[in-house]
Structures are given as C-alpha cells and as structure tokens.
Amino acid sequence: MQVQSEMESLVRMHLEHIHLCVPPEIEAAWLHHRFAQIHPFQDGNGRVARALASLIFIKAGWFPLVINRDLRNEYIDALEEADKGNLTSLVNLFAKIQKKAFVKALSLSENVLSDYKPLKQLISV
C-alpha cells in the first residue's frame, strides 16, 4: 500500500510542477529519480524512469533521453548524488544530453540543406 501512496504523491507533485512551469531538464531529472526511489516494480524501474524522463522532454519538444554506454558511469554517479539529496548532477547530465542531441540535429539539417542546392537557392530568394 505504501507504493500506491508514494505513486499518488509523485503524480500530485508532478502536476504541481507542471502548473509551476518547472523547466523540462529539472522535471525530467526529478521525476526519473523519484520514480526510481519508489521502485514500484520488481524489474524495469530504470527503464520506466528513463521513459518518464523522455516523455517530459518529448512533451517540451525536445529529444528522448538516451543514456549510452559512454555516459553510464556519469549517469550512475549522478543518481548516487541524487540519492544523497543533490539533483544537480542529474539535471546537468540530462541538459548535456539534450544539448548534444540538439547540436547533432542542427548539424544534420545543415548537411541536408547544403547538399540540396535547389532548396538552398529557393531559400535565398
């Protein structure tokens, strides 16, 4: 029964955060960490927590959260810091991942535009 009340509290606080316009990187990190702390499932809590963070980002028009192998240690360290009450490292990691995704997307779009000369001419008119 404690898991149910904790989850109800999580949802209530999340809705309050939406009302307060908490920035996506902060809300995603908070929701991810808090869900993982509640640990409502026997298996898959980390995957669900990352999916919840991804939903926050997608709703904001950002990219899904992807933690690759290169970031695994930094991710684990940030989660351990969050367990101690300091969410800063997790927020910064999520922001860094988003920034990298935006830069990559912009670079890809520039490559597409530069490779397609008729479109480039049309845009310059």
Description:
- By secondary structure, the protein is mainly α.
- It has one domain (2-98): Fido-like domain (Fic-like fold, Orthogonal Bundle), CATH 1.10.3290.10.
- Helices cover 77% and strands 0% of the residues.
- The chain contains 6 helices and no strands.
- The chain has helices spanning 2-19, 24-38, 45-59, 72-83, 88-115, 117-124.
- Helix 2 (24-38) packs antiparallel against helix 3.
- The protein is elongated, with a radius of gyration of 18 Å.
- The termini are far apart.
- The mean pLDDT is 91.
Please render the helix and strand layout as text:
Layout: H1 2-19, H2 24-38, H3 45-59, H4 72-83, H5 88-115, H6 117-124
Helix pairs in contact: 1-2, 2-3, 2-5, 4-5
Quick structural summary:
With 125 residues, the protein is mostly helical.
Number of strands: 0
Low-confidence stretches: none
Outline type: elongated
- Look at the structure and give the CATH class: Mainly Alpha
What fraction of the residues are assigned to beta strands by DSSP? under 5%
Q: Average pLDDT across residues?
A: 91
**How far from one another are the termini?**
65 Å
Number of helices: 6
Structural class by helix and strand composition: mainly alpha
- CATH level 3 topology: Fic-like fold
